[in-house]
Specification:
289 residues; alpha/beta; Serum Albumin, Chain A, Domain 1; Transposase Inhibitor Protein From Tn5, Chain A, domain 1; 3 domains; five-stranded mixed sheet; three-stranded antiparallel sheet; 8 helices; 27% helix
Length: 289
């Protein structure tokens, strides 16, 4: 056991096995993690002063330091914590970093809307169903090149591996590979509407890995109602539950009553890919209103 109140002790446990090619770099990572964990909401200049701040910039400027090397040890510790849980949610999402105001920064790409310069990060976080964070499981960063801007109409001609949405498929593959390290844990990948992708639904998954997606498209289905929304609404009510909704501003806290439906559904492939004779995909649709 470690003393959670001691940042340096915690950092040593989490990052002590980092493989950065130099033991001094590993010690620097441990020291940085310990100091930054004391004020995670602050910027580097706010958390670090003088020589410590310069050392941090040198550390991240070192070509031996990369995301895999920094996160490898921590991911190992996360997997150890996952072995003690019967169910773990592997939550994925994408964050856009808008650095347009940093005019001298090189290597940035275009972002959404008026965010002209920055980069993207797709991460996977392990949490228990009760909401206890267990740690990071993976992270991918990239930039959008200027040549890709304005070519959204060409997306349908490209394969999933050629699109930015490949991140969801890669995330599922990454989770499936990590499953071998915690064979007794039921892992559930969770993503928002952006992950509602036919290729991800039909991807292979090992036993003990499931995929929960918030539906975005009223997909065609092999059922009398022909479309997903109508099909699930026609399913019988299975039960009810209550959800506490916190207050915000002038809105008072309340308890909502949810009506629950769940039914097996056979999704048809997208229309624009019909000539390829792709198969239907069998899934469960869950409806809460």
């Amino acid at each position: 056991m470690t003393d959670a109140s001691d940042p340096d002790d915690w950092a040593s446990v989490e990052f002590g096995a980092a493989q950065l090619g130099d033991a001094r770099l590993t010690q620097r990572l441990i020291a940085l993690a310990g100091r930054l964990s004391g004020a995670p909401q602050c910027s580097f200049p706010q958390s670090l002063k003088g020589a410590d701040l310069k050392a941090a910039y040198r550390f991240f400027d070192n070509p031996k330091v990369d995301p895999d090397g920094v996160l490898g040890s921590h991911i190992g510790r996360t997997l150890e914590r996952m072995r003690d849980a019967s169910v773990v949610l592997a939550v994925q999402d994408t964050t856009e970093f808008n650095l347009t105001h940093l005019h001298a920064t090189e290597g940035l790409g275009h972002c959404a809307g008026h965010n002209l310069r920055g980069f993207m990060m797709h991460s996977m976080l392990a949490v228990t169903p009760e909401g206890l964070p267990l740690g990071v499981l993976g992270m991918k960063t990239w930039t959008r090149t200027p040549e890709e801007r304005g070519k959204g109409e060409l997306r349908r001609r490209r394969t999933i591996r050629e699109k930015e949405s490949a991140k969801w498929l890669e995330g599922l593959e990454h989770l499936s590979a990590l499953k071998a390290h915690c064979p007794q844990t039921h892992c559930i990948g969770v993503c928002d509407r952006e992950g509602d992708i036919y290729d991800v639904f039909r991807a292979d998954r090992p036993a003990g890995v499931d995929w929960l997606v918030r539906a975005s498209w009223n997909r065609r289905v092999a059922h009398p109602q022909k479309y997903l929304w109508e099909t699930i609404v026609a399913a019988p009510v299975l039960g009810f539950t209550e959800l506490k909704i916190p207050g915000s501003g002038s809105t008072i806290a309340r308890t909502a009553r949810l009506t629950l439906r769940c039914a097996p559904v056979s999704l048809r492939p997208p229309r624009y890919r019909r000539p390829r004779r792709l198969p239907n995909v069998e899934v469960f649709a869950i409806h809460a209103i």
